[in-house]
Amino acid sequence: MSAIHWRGVLFGGLFLAAQATTVAAQERELLTLEAALARAGIVDSADEPPDNPRLIGPRAEADAARALVDQARLRPNPEIAFEAENIAGSGAFSGLQATEYTLSLSQRLELGGKRGARVRAAQAEARVATLSGALSVAQLGRSVRERYVEAVAAAARLELARDIVERNRELARIAGVLVDVGREPPLRSLRAEAALAEALAELEAALAADSAARNALAALWGEAAPAADVPSVFPEIEPPATLLASPSALRLQVARAEREAADAAIAQERSLGIPDPAISAGIRRFEESRDQAFLVGVSIPLPFRNRNQGNIAAAEARLRAATAREAIARTDFELEVTQARGQFLAAEARVETLAETSLPQAEEALRLVRIGYRNGRFPLIEVLAAAEARDTIREALIQAQEDRGRLAATLIWLGAQ
Fold it and tell me: Which of 37, 147, 248, 401 is the most exposed, fewest CB within 10 Å of its CB?
């Protein structure tokens, strides 16, 4: 058996294995974008809480911040004190005869609006945590859409690689027949088999890329195994019809909430600079005479040195930083919206041109060349050139559709409210 025949058998076996993989994938249920979003926990379920660790963390942080609001509403606890004086001394104070027992209750009074400032600061932090959690959900939704689009692109490239293998296998068969009948030199058959070998290598690379893309998608909901197969047809991801840099955008809401929290922290720190008096009342018993007396008292800290001035200055500096971050966030947001919108429109126009004009023309040119090749009117190199031109356009279309899907996901994220 010749080396050429052995190579043909090998190529045919690899092709059949790839086809078997395709059939098995078709028998399994394909993962849709909606199912991927639901699996990641983007779509809330009333029955089951999300088990995605990427969502559990931000939501737990929001729960913790709300718990701190409840804690901030609580007033200081009263304090009870018990004292025994003149115990086990010497002379007249020996034993317990001269002992004096005192039982008192004291309460610290918060002045300067401490409780209100503390509650407002905690509420501001809770709002930051809640909005940050919502932003995390929006960011996860963007990642799911982007990686799903990448997985679809990998599936489309895998389908393209299989088509190329099938085409080159047919060309190798035809070249072998033409060589056998003397219409083509043996070099043509070798060239066809080399093209088939290269296509099979590309198919293996496409299979690996498809598995890697599905692995990356499944990682977004915490699974180590690859996600289910996805279709090779890109989903319709529609960006918001109008997207303006308004204060309602979620990213800007977070920046504004952080500034408001920094402002509330200043009021809280200033209130802490005002001393809180403590009032006390109690009863004292004199063991020697069996007499009793009531006690009242007031204690007030003297703010000679520590007036919380350092913490106030730090809070004011944090407010300046938060204000600057808010301004930067607004500027960056406007720039990202403008760039993403322009790039999306350009990708959409490219998809339309490639799908409606370039690809049909390349398909027709390849069809005519293949007919001519079967009839011996065109050499093999013409078929390969036409096929390569068609495949290049298909790859460009896949890339344009992938770019459009990613940019649509970005616009949806930017428009999150």
Answer: 248
3-state secondary structure of 67: helix
DSSP state of 48: S
Domain boundaries, the chain: 53-325
Identify the helix (H) or strand (E) that includes residue 98: none
The token pair at 173 is 């068969």
**What is the pLDDT tens value at each position of the chain, 417 positions in all?**
444 443 444 444 444 444 544 444 445 688 999 999 988 988 765 455 568 889 999 999 999 999 999 999 999 999 999 998 888 766 666 667 778 889 999 999 999 999 999 999 999 999 999 999 999 999 999 999 999 999 999 999 999 999 999 988 888 888 888 777 776 677 778 888 888 899 999 999 999 999 999 999 999 988 877 778 899 899 988 887 766 556 678 889 999 999 999 999 999 999 999 999 999 999 998 877 788 999 999 999 998 889 999 999 999 999 999 999 999 999 999 899 889 999 999 999 999 999 999 999 999 998 998 888 778 787 777 888 888 899 999 999 999 999 999 999 999 998 887
Q: Are strands 278-286 and 291-299 parallel, antiparallel or unpaired?
A: antiparallel
**HSE (side-chain half, CA atoms, 13 Å) at 196:** 27
- Classify 53-325 by CATH class: mainly alpha
Query: H or E element: which one contains 278?
Result: strand 278-286
Residues 369, 356: Cα–Cα separation, whole Å: 21
| Helix (H) / strand (E) containing 319 | helix 309-353
pTM of the model: 0.80
As a whole number of angstroms, the distance between CA 78 and CA 277 comes to: 13
